[in-house]
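Feature request, filed as a ticket because there's no other form

It would be nice if the structure record came with a short human-readable summary line next to the tokens. Right now we just get the raw output. Example of a typical job, pasted below so the devs can see what we mean:
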Amino acid sequence: MSAASFREGEHFTLLARRGAVEQAEPEPIRCHEVLAELGTWADWHRSPGYGHDACRAWLVRACDSGRLRLLVRREWVPAPGYSASGTEDELYELPEAVRLGEEVPA
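Raw output as currently delivered:
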């Protein structure tokens, strides 16, 4: 992925945004800390034939409330003949019951 990645322990206050064809201005948010990278995958379902999103996910924690969230970064990879590009970050709320280091009851 060509966009800068998040590193464990790093704090961030901006989310990347993209328009229909190119990168948009970043969105300011409250401070979050990166806890761990969870994985990568390619999403071919959003615009088949035009390209795909190269995706990465991280577990993050809000600096003020301690709430855990999922951060997903999608970097558009255009198909041959197309030139659109951009990176989009999205924060997803996790259920209140999600905690680090606790066992889930069976």
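Something like this underneath would help us a lot:
The longest strand covers residues 23-43.
The chain has a mean pLDDT of 86.
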